[in-house]
Amino acid sequence: MGEMITWLEQNAVLLGALGSLAAVLALFLVNGAQVVRALIRRITDSPDQTTGNDRAGHGAANGSGASGPEPVDVSQPVPGFGGRDALAVLPFENMSEDAEQGYFADGITEDLLTALQAFRTFPVIARSTTFAYKGKSPDIREVARELGAGYVLEGSVRKMGERVRITAQLIDSAGVHLWAERFDRNLSEIFEVQDEIIEKIAAAIAPELLRADRKKRDQKKPEDLKAWDITLQAGEFMMSPDIEDFSQSLDLLHKALALDPSFGLAHAMIANAYSYNIVFFGGKAFKGLPEDSMDLALRHARTAVALDKNQALAHRVLGLVLLRRKDLEGALHECQEGVRLNPSGSLNHQSLAIVLAAGDRFEEALEEIEIAKRLSPQDMFLWNFYQIEGWASFCLERYEQTIDAARHSLRLRPQNKYSHLQLIASLVALEKMEEAQTALAKLVSDVPDFSTKELLLAPQVKDRYLSALGRAGWHES
Q1: Residue 187 carries which DSSP code?
Q2: How far apart, in whole angstroms, are the C-alpha atoms of residue 182 and residue 204?
Q3: Are strands 149-160 and 163-172 parallel, antiparallel or unpaired?
Q4: Which helix (H) or strand (E) holds 169?
């Protein structure tokens, strides 16, 4: 699509991959190569609070027993894993006396989850779905049913100075405990403990698993554990929708790099921080930087990949930055590499879907977004997954599918103007004019400041939307 590609970036990044923690989900949606803002916020039970740019979003679930309207069908196995049951990793409980050490427990969970996702032998449900259970005490059997998982891992973390205690237990969907163990180690042995837990899980779920199939997840571990700890703290700040909190993340990440310049994960997170600054805060979160800091994002993304070629996060970030640079071939390669390295990462499949759609490969994009939905069936950005589906199906002139996807997205996030447009344009294409007029009235109601002047769309898609809006009765004020 060459000049027509605007960049669809994703906001998400498991800021947890190996050492980082609770991640921010990324989403930069497209409707023919558009940029759609997403948000940085944690799933909570409280109403959305936004600052700066519009970052409000509604997840499909906000805890145990919660589900969005017409949830994703989890009754079938995740495609691509030979029918094997999925594993869900619940957030480990922080048992430290200091409640502020919660970021450390989240980081341990993220490390385990990301490492397990590197196995191609069994699927792992995404953290953006499983972290909805944080702070709750759900019935494991209910969790397994809601997520379509055959196994659930839960545990706790206690950090005591230079010592750490980790407990973990693996439970099957019937509530049967397969194993449980406690690890008391020095903090310097934390990565070895993680490896032990991972090996036990793999042995329980897939006894025939070959070590080679694990891809050895040889992500580079930090030379300085303090750098790792600071990176976890930075990830906590990056999750905040508040510009003052978010602005602290970059300083922390640079402190981590000062301690360990070769820590690839910190470079990848810095690349994301620059991208988030533009998308979420209009380039105003970090003082002394140009508003368009994508050159800095590109530099750190390339460095992250050079330092750690097995870090899926780094490849995904680089791929989406390259897409902004209109390097579709490079973007495709990097996002495909992200999927190869982390086949259970829902955001890897989502990012690949965006790039495929940007190259008019809509059928393949739909396949990838279906995998993403199944890997994270209660994702707080499920509305965004449906928007990608709506975009691709609309371009394939599958208007009924587009209508269904758009309505799913709008139930989860009514202010999503691009899904409103997909819905109206599809109804007009099917000559359902009365329904299209009703849909237009809903757009005006849900997005009172809507204007066609601010649409970020590929020209051919924008023209079709504008034509449909006009036929439905829209008049620009």
Answers
A1: G
A2: 17
A3: antiparallel
A4: strand 163-172
- The pLDDT of residue 93 is 93
What tokens were used for 462? 């924008």
What 3-state class would DSSP assign to 40? coil
CA distance 315 to 321: 10
More confident residue, 207 or 343: 343
Q: Residue for token digits 């589906």?
A: 389
**Residue 114: both structure tokens together:** 């990301």
Q: Supply angle C-alpha 316, 348, 102, rounded to 5.
A: 90
125 shares a domain with 155: yes
Summarised one tens digit per residue, pLDDT across range 209-219 is 434 344 444 55
Detail the DSSP E strand segments found in 17-57: 24-25
Q: Is the Cβ–Cβ distance between 312 and 345 less than 8 Å?
A: yes
- Which residues share a beta bridge with 94? 157
- Which CATH number belongs to the domain containing residue 181 in this structure? 3.40.50.10610
> What is the β-pairing status of strands 177-186 and 149-160?
unpaired
- Pair 465, 350 in one domain: no
Average pLDDT on 279-293 reads 75
- The gap from C-alpha 234 to its chain's centroid, in whole angstroms, comes to 17
> 64: closest CA among 99, 88, 38?
88
The Cα 267–Cα 308 span in angstroms is: 10
Output the pLDDT for position 279: 65
- Residues 316, 413, single domain; the answer is no
Model pTM score: 0.76
pLDDT at 66 over 70: no
Q: Are 328 and 5 in contact (CB under 8 A)?
A: yes
Domain end point (choices 319, 352, 377): 377
> Which three-class secondary structure state does DSSP give residue 153?
strand
Coil, helix or strand for 317?
Answer: helix
Looking up tokens 């897939």 gives 206
pLDDT of 224 higher than 90? no
pLDDT at 17: 29
Q: How far apart are CA 395 and CA 392, in angstroms?
A: 5
> Is the per-residue pLDDT at 108 higher than 60?
yes
For residue 301, CA distances in Å to 130, 451, 472 come to 27, 34, 44
First vs last Cα of the chain: how many Å apart?
Answer: 32
Q: What is the pLDDT of residue 30?
A: 32
* Co-location of 341 and 256 in the same domain: yes
Task: Tell me the three state secondary structure of residue 464.
Answer: helix
Residue numbers of the domain that contains 354: 2-57+223-377
